[in-house]
Amino acid sequence: MLVYGKNPMFHLMNRIDTREDKYEIAMKISIDDGIEKIISLAEEYDGVIIGDISAGFRNQLVKLCYANNIRSYTVPKISDILLRSSVELNIFDSPLYLSRNFDGLALDQAFVKRAMDIVIASLMLVVSSPFFVVIAALIKGTDHGPVFYTQKRLTKGGKIFSIYKFRTMIVNAESKSGPVKAGERDARVLPVGRFLRATRLDELPQLLNIIKGDMSLVGPRPERPELAKVITKNIPEFTYRLKVKAGLTGYAQIYGRYCTTSYDKLKLDLTYIRKYSIWLDLQLILMTIKVLFMRESTDGFEDGKWEDPALKG
């Protein structure tokens, strides 16, 4: 049973529907129907998914589920993710949770991460060099335009850098539209560009960004300054992503989708930042190889069917 607030959680329901072999939403109910009614109905189901509802109602519902031995799944808020890595202190007669400020990686962590970036990115660049030749020929054969495309992006501390990509759109694609996300049936995308985007091969030139030090292998994906400004206006916590370098792949790329909302991607990125370790980086790099072959991971914004609330000016 799914309990929702003002947000009906359609995107979550759609994702759960793709795993109907394991999960099924048998009923959805608004928090406005009342806690008592929800609890009385919840006993008929295997569990309750607690959606994006107010903290007061959510806490009350969690405690009632616990008291009635009902399994509950809670959609976390950003504050929940920040608290997850807290240290429990028992210096008084009541537990305290210490949530430390995150000002970046420790010196030893930063050194090992940078060394790993240089070694792995250099090896990947050598191994993938034949792909560079083939892809360049395909792009040139399509419209004789430039092979590479550069774009301003944000990395650690809000620093702006030029990201390298294989060009997948027509030349001057944003001359009329301005900075917008690509749609699933976007007419600006070249035929070969659709293939490159679906396989993420258009991102290969970013290995050069990693070697230069603009990016890391793993981290939050770098956002465009224009879009980041709009998102931050709607989600002030979006700036928290800038505590680490932007990455070629990351937690949001593994567990999210191209059409995952900015708010949910932020929660995934913050989960990575709070859980960071070299072993987690290695795990995410290996998992990226699997994700490359999953069509749903590169699902685009279906025109007229989906929009990111955070991108509304």
TrEMBL record:
Entry membrane topology: Multi-pass membrane protein
Cellular-component GO terms for this entry: membrane
UniProt superkingdom: Bacteria
InterPro entries: Bact_transf (IPR003362), EPS_sugar_tfrase (IPR017475)
UniProt-recorded Gene Ontology molecular function terms: phosphotransferase activity, for other substituted phosphate groups
Compartment(s): Membrane
Claim: Metal-binding is one of the keywords in the record: no
Bacterial sugar transferase domain span: 113-293
Keywords: Membrane, Transferase, Transmembrane, Transmembrane helix
Family annotation (Pfam families): Bac_transf
TM region positions: 118-139
Family: Belongs to the bacterial sugar transferase family.
Protein name: Bacterial sugar transferase domain-containing protein
Organism: Enterocloster clostridioformis
